[in-house]
Design brief:
The complex is a heterodimer of chains A (109) and B (251). By secondary structure, chain A is of the alpha+beta class. Chain A contains four helices and two strands, in the order H-H-H-E-E-H. Chain A is globular, with a radius of gyration of 16 Å. The two termini of chain A are 28 Å apart. In chain A, 31% of the residues are buried. Classes of the chains: A alpha+beta (109), B mainly alpha (251). The interface between A and B is medium-sized, with 20 and 20 residues.
């Protein structure tokens, strides 16, 4: 099963669709979690997920606002979607009944 | 953001893969990060990459299986060749008639060729097996060199004799960085020639190769050559497997 940061990264990349690349993914993770996401954590995780076949990456076009540097574009694979869904199901499943879950089942409370 | 500060960031990013460097430097520019923050980000990534490299066996093998033991032993071999050269060219320093008889010019050439083969092979293994941790191997090679240079006490020889092995070793590293593996025929020829020369020298009487110390020395210095043979066989099998798979998919 994937780790929580891997799940965050895959979900952010899936939400961004065609615009998924380093800066956009970092900003989405930071906006969602409220924590700083380092470049080191981002790129090492992208590489790990690519090795697992959950992501594909390629070099995009260079843009002037990046000083003429290319973006590393990211796309979630079908396997990545399956794994992320598996992680989500596991987290929601195990969270059911937890005191911090708003609509928890009555029996568990 | 000064240009000088960003130059430091660029230098720090040089150890990254070119594509990754491009993406990271572009990200820093797009987010308008300060040079200091950029440097911390890049150093963090470089550190993570180095740590990840050390999770595999190759850096450990090249650092502690090849570089450290071979540096010590090759310094000894370099010294031995230089001393033999001195015995041969300067009759005044001849102290033993037996030694003079054993150290003929062809035997010295054999020792020198063996030193060349050992040094080149060790360098090649270091350069080809773990190129991204080469700087660690360089530091680990320098440490025993400095240690021995500081304690060198042979009046008739220059301290630089200890470092005779460095040139062929660096030559081997350069080759290893360019090509990841030798052709199998070359690897077998190199390993066989090295082993044959050890046997030849052992039978000549200049080195008692059957003693435990000589055995350990020869085995430590020769195993990189046989490792190259194994690596070439592995690569050949992999290449054959890929071509068979490609052939299978076409049919």
């Amino acid at each position: 099963m994937m780790g929580e940061f891997e799940y965050l990264l895959i979900t952010a990349a899936a939400n961004l669709a065609e615009n998924a690349y380093g800066v956009a993914i970092r900003e989405q993770i930071e906006a969602t979690t409220g924590h700083k996401c380092s470049i080191g954590a981002l790129y090492t995780t992208i590489e790990r997920l690519e090795k697992k076949g959950l992501l594909t990456t390629w070099m995009g076009d260079a843009t002037p606002q990046r000083g003429g540097r290319a973006k590393r574009m990211v796309r979630v694979t079908a396997k990545g979607v399956r794994e992320a869904k598996g992680f989500y199901d596991a987290v929601t499943g195990v969270s059911r009944g937890a005191s911090w879950v708003a609509n928890r089942t009555r029996g568990a409370s | 953001m000064t240009n000088a500060a960003w130059s430091v960031v660029e230098v720090a990013a040089r150890s990254l893969h070119p594509d990754e460097r491009e993406a990271v430097m572009g990200d820093l520019k797009e987010r308008d990060e300060s040079a200091w923050q950029g440097l911390l980000d890049v150093l963090g990534l470089v550190l993570r990459r180095q740590v990840m490299l050390w999770k595999s066996w190759q850096p450990w093998l090249t650092a502690f299986g090849v570089t450290v033991p071979c540096s010590f032993l090759l310094m000894g071999a370099s010294l031995s060749v230089c001393q033999a050269w001195l015995w041969l060219i300067d009759a005044r320093t001849l102290r033993s008639a037996d030694m003079a008889a054993a150290w003929s010019l062809p035997m010295l050439a054999c020792h020198a060729a063996l030193l060349l083969g050992w040094s080149w092979t060790a360098g090649f293994v270091v350069g080809s097996t773990s190129p991204r941790t080469l700087w660690v191997s360089a530091v680990l090679c320098c440490s025993p060199c400095m240690f021995c240079l500081a304690r060198f006490q042979v009046p008739s020889l220059s301290r630089l004799c200890l470092l005779l092995f460095l040139l062929p070793a660096i030559w081997g590293v350069r080759h290893g960085l360019r090509i990841s593996s030798l052709r199998l025929s070359w690897a077998i020829a190199l390993a066989s020639a090295t082993t044959l020369m050890i046997a030849l020298i052992g039978s000549s009487g200049t080195q008692r190769w059957w003693t435990p110390a000589a055995w350990v020395l020869n085995a430590t210095l020769t195993w990189p050559a046989w490792y190259l043979v194994l690596a070439s066989i592995k690569l050949r099998k992999k290449t054959c497997g890929v071509s068979t798979e490609a052939g299978g998919s076409i049919t």
